[in-house]
Design brief:
2 domains; 14 helices; 47% helix; single chain; two-stranded antiparallel ribbon; binds nicotinamide-adenine-dinucleotide; Rossmann fold; Dehydroquinate synthase-like, alpha domain
């Protein structure tokens, strides 16, 4: 299989996303080409280090790197300042200078945490992303949003700070838990809806191949997703406008996550329901045809993601939307679908339309 490469065009901060099989086997040669210092730090969790660490470390050492490994416990609750500080301590102890690269290997939690440390340690050191979850491969490793959580809110402390390169090894998906795979699929379906009808059609026609980890199909959908994210990020790096189309399904998804105490749903699962709700609202607002709403619902169902709202009243969801950080001047800003591949941002949808659409989705 030939490797695919997607460029994130950001002037002197541009970088490439490499998508292929066994990318990790040559990671040392690849990172060497950046001419960083020879002291590199791999940041990951113990499970992933057991699975992939040895291969990465050996290859980097073979290419002249002196390796330090920092283990972070697995889980969203460790994406915090305390863990960031522990990493700063280790970097200072190890006398890592401004040219020592940090290598994040894992899902979005490790990528966001490592990226945040890279952005702040000695006012910025280079970092590399090796995303191993599907969500990280198509979303969190691309675009330079780095953050840690604060007790008062998710991703509240962070920086925009781009990686030097992103290396996706499709093989890593073999060990990814099925639920995590589904969550990544929710984001990929989102890319189809917001910008790429061909991707949407491809997903509809290749459900079984994708679920069975057909690497050619996976490479296509990951490349297509990264191209969309790269193109949006290069036009609007700091989310001043256009980048907010990436929030399709996320506004209602976030409301569901917060109303259920972040316990009932994983992010991708909540986004899947949010995407259907957004499609229903789009239809009620006369922006799209009913048949396109059905296509969205069917596609989401076919990847075994939930499509019904939990037992929460539409009124409660609506009030949660008003508290969402994207509310500007008391208006709910929604990304709505015109048809698969095309969306529009609206902040003038009447509450009644939102309530009616949410009611139609309640189980
Ligand atoms: N920076 C951004 O733009 C951005 C975008 C979206 C999400 N995020 C953040 O990403 C995080 C979610 O990322 P996630 O969904 O990858 O969750 P995660 O990082 O918690 O990973 C999910 C689970 O899968 C495991 N895992 C990852 N790859 C594996 C593999 N190949 N084999 C076996 N197990 C594997 C992880 O150890 C973890 O237990 C959240 O913190 C979210 O805020 C950031």
């Amino acid at each position: 299989m030939n490797e695919k490469v997607v460029k994130v065009e950001l002037g002197e901060r541009s970088y490439y996303i490499h998508i292929g099989l066994n990318t990790l086997n040559t990671i040392g040669e690849r990172i060497q080409q950046f001419h960083f210092s020879h002291k590199a730090v791999l940041i990951s969790n113990s499970h992933l280090i057991k699975l992939y660490g040895e291969r990465i470390i050996l290859n980097l050492k073979k290419n002249g790197f002196e390796m330090e490994v920092i283990e972070v416990p697995d889980g969203e609750k460790y994406k915090n300042m305390r863990e960031a500080e522990k990493i700063y301590d280790r970097l200072l102890d190890g006398k890592h200078d401004r040219y020592s690269p940090l290598i994040a290997m894992g899902g979005g939690v490790l990528g966001d945490l490592t990226g945040f440390v890279a952005a702040t340690y000695r006012r910025g050191v280079p970092y590399i992303q090796i995303p191993t979850s599907l969500l990280a491969q198509v979303d969190s490793s691309v675009g330079g949003k780095t953050a840690v959580n604060h007790p008062l809110g998710k991703n509240m402390i962070g920086a925009f700070y781009q990686p030097a390169g992103v290396f996706v090894d499709l093989n890593a998906l073999k060990t990814l838990p099925k639920i995590e795979f589904r969550c990544g699929m929710a984001e990929i379906i989102k890319y189809g809806i917001i910008a790429d009808e061909m991707l949407f059609n491809f997903l509809e026609s290749r459900v079984e191949d994708i679920k069975n980890l057909d690497f050619n199909a996976l490479q296509y959908i990951i490349e297509a997703s990264c191209k969309i994210k790269a193109s949006i990020v290069s036009k609007d790096e700091r989310e001043k406008g256009l980048r907010s189309v990436l929030n399709y399904g996320h506004t209602i998804g976030h409301a569901l996550e917060s109303l259920t105490g972040y316990e009932k749903y994983k992010h991708g699962e909540a986004v899947a329901i949010g995407m259907i709700a957004a499609a229903f609202i789009s239809h009620e607002a006369e922006l799209c045809d009913k048949k396109d709403v059905e296509r969205v619902k069917k596609l989401i169902e076919s990847f075994n993601l939930a499509t019904q709202l939990p037992n929460i009243s539409p009124e409660k969801i609506l009030s949660a939307l008003y508290y969402d950080k994207k509310v500007r001047n008391d208006k709910i800003k929604l990304v709505l679908m015109k048809q698969p591949g095309s969306v529009v941002i609206r902040d003038d949808i009447p509450d009644e339309i939102i309530l009616k659409s949410l009611s139609a989705l309640t189980s």
